[in-house]
Amino acid sequence: MLIGKSLELARIEVIEDHERAEMTKHRNCYKKLRESELLYTQKQEAKNKRNLDEQDRRAEPVNSRKTLDLAKDKL
Description:
Blueprint: H1 2-74
């Protein structure tokens, strides 16, 4: 009976070790995925900001010309 109990406890310990290793592996994969998604999101946000800044920069001379044209019309 004692040998059976020892074998059962050893078996349970092996299973727990395996489960712990699988959980660690899963956690690491999830962490890598989360970090890569965050990096992708940050890159997309930076790209969008650059595009908006470029649009504003290109629209600025047009807006300035319109303001000058309106000022000339008033004279």
